[in-house]
Design brief:
CATH topology: Aminopeptidase
Number of helices: 6
CATH architecture: 3-Layer(aba) Sandwich
Largest sheet: 7 strands, mixed
Strand content: 25-35%
Distance between the termini: 34 Å
Order of helices and strands: EHHHEEHEHEHEE
Number of strands: 7
Shape: globular
Structural class: alpha+beta
């Protein structure tokens, strides 16, 4: 039951203690469509180092007992690489006043219980506690409608994101590289940005 879960922001030393658990969650959850991520510890270590080192970063953890079953990340956008910040700066946003949501990952058995909503509200609350942010943004992978691995009946999360107050940023994209399940090596994936006004 969702009400038996502990959902709380993790920062500082508590955040660092859960980075390995978050890596395992990302590898497990992102194997599914639309990410199709063939995870590796080397990739995870590179990616998650940003959250360990960046002032203002947060992991919102969902724990069932001592087990981390879900997590969502966020940090001030200025700590992200130029490949992420540049498209938003080019769109007229002040990078220093944007809070970036990294990902939300939750094991399938815990979905549909309101945990995903809490992930969004807790990250927004963290950004507001830090202060100085006009917007929250995230980006999501854009797979073609005819992708061969798209499951029958797949429903994108657009409606869920809109219900959290986000809207697409038309034409604003970036690219991330990872290895898909059926690939021999990493390839670039198109990511589209969504934004919410916090001011």
């Amino acid at each position: 039951m969702a009400d038996a879960l502990r959902i709380e922001p993790l920062t500082g030393d508590a955040l660092r203690r859960h980075l390995a658990d978050l890596a395992d969650l990302r590898i497990a959850v992102f194997r599914a469509f639309p990410y199709l991520y063939e995870g590796s510890r080397a990739y995870e270590e590179r990616y998650l180092a940003t959250y360990a080192d960046a002032p203002g970063s947060v992991i919102v953890g969902a724990r069932d007992g001592d087990r981390l079953v879900g997590a969502a990340t966020g940090l001030p956008l200025r700590h992200e690489p130029d490949t992420v910040t540049r498209p938003l700066a080019d769109a007229g946003l002040d990078v220093g006043r944007v809070f970036y949501y990294g990902e939300s990952v939750l094991l399938p058995d815990y979905r549909g219980r309101g945990v995903g909503v809490r992930f969004f509200t807790e990250r927004e609350a963290h950004a507001r506690r830090l202060g100085g942010f006009d917007h929250a943004v995230f980006c999501a992978v854009d797979r073609p409608d005819d992708h061969p691995r798209r499951p029958a009946g797949h429903v994108p999360l657009d409606g869920f994101w809109r219900n959290r107050g986000f809207r697409p940023l038309p034409g604003v994209t970036c690219r991330f590289s990872w290895r898909d399940l059926d690939e021999d090596g990493e390839s670039e994936k198109l990511m589209r940005f969504w934004i919410k006004d916090l001011a």
